Each structure stands twice: as structure tokens, then as C-alpha cells.
Amino acid sequence: MPDNYKIPSNTRIGHIHLKVSDLDKALSFYRDLLGFEVTQYYGNSAVFVSAGGYHHHIGLNTWHSKNGGPAPANSCGLYHTAILYPTRKDLALILKRLLEARYPLSGASDHGVSEAIYLDDPDGNGVELYWDKPKEQWTFDAEGNLNMITQRLDVDNLLKEINR
């Protein structure tokens, strides 16, 4: 069925909607720890959260998952939600907040084009917090493919960004 259709280049992912087991636990993570703002409750079974006043970036619901367990790690489903921070300093600030809260991290990587911190929400949904390096710093191979890597993130260097 290839007919050379390409999605418009200015298309963006508008929001995600996650099934969670407990709205209060999910809100303690997305609102209280990560800092999203509640924009609307949908009865006692869903809530919408946002950054900067958008109607919602993340929907959280218990419609089919109330008191349920996490999805099996080795099955199909969402790998992670990636939350893009506008600056390296913003990423450093959320990292500091997570460390101070002693929230468990599952990884921290330098991907060449971005720097990322990985963790799971209370329901085991993967979350990536990252910032993109300026496009001028991105490199390409001889065929024009973007050079993406996975190296250990220098967390101490990232945290120094807070005082710059």
C-alpha cells in the first residue's frame, strides 16, 4: 500500500493516555513529583495533566485497570513515554528533584543527540525525561544517517548546569 504519502512535517504527538491502577498514586508521581498541573478531573476515574496550560499532555484513567498490576515486561505495549524538557538546566533541575526524593532511576544516557534520564511511574510505565542537544551538534554518517549512541550520562556534569 505504499503510495508515497508522508505525514506533514509539523505534526506533533499531542498527548498520551495511560491506564493506571490508582489515580492518587499516579498523581503523586506526575503532579507532585514531575510537576504537571491538573487541568481536569473526569469523575473519580480519570484525570488530565498538562505542562503550560495545554488541555492535557497526559491522561490517567482507571477505566479498565483499577487496582490492576503492571503489564508484563516481556509483552507488547508502551515502552516509555518521553517528556522533552526545553533546556539542559531544566533536565538537571528535575534530576536533582528526583535524587532528593530518592525516587529510583532505571538509567541515564547520553544519546549524542540528547541526554536522558529513565525511570518508571508507580504502575511500571517507563518514563524518559530528556532534552535535545542543539541540532548543530548532531552528527551524521557518510550515508546521511543520524549518529545516535547510548553512553553513560555524566550525571555530575549535568547537575553542574543548575549553577550556571
Describe this structure in words.
With 164 residues, the chain is α+β, with helices and mostly antiparallel strands. The protein folds into two domains: 13-66, 2,3-Dihydroxybiphenyl 1,2-Dioxygenase, domain 1 (Roll); 79-164, 2,3-Dihydroxybiphenyl 1,2-Dioxygenase, domain 1, CATH 3.10.180. Helix content is 18%, strand content 28%. The strands form two sheets. A five-stranded mixed sheet has the order 5-8-7-6-9, covered by helices on one side. The longest helix has 13 residues, at 88-100.
Q: Largest sheet at a glance?
A: 5 strands, mixed
CATH superfamily of the largest domain: 2,3-Dihydroxybiphenyl 1,2-Dioxygenase, domain 1
Give the DSSP E fraction (strand runs of 2 or more residues).
25-35%
Shape: globular
Multimerization state = single chain
Q: How do the strands of the widest beta sheet line up side by side? A: 5-8-7-6-9
What is the CATH architecture assignment of the largest domain? Roll
CATH top level of the largest domain is Alpha Beta
- Alpha-beta content class: alpha+beta
Rg, Å, rounded:
18 Å
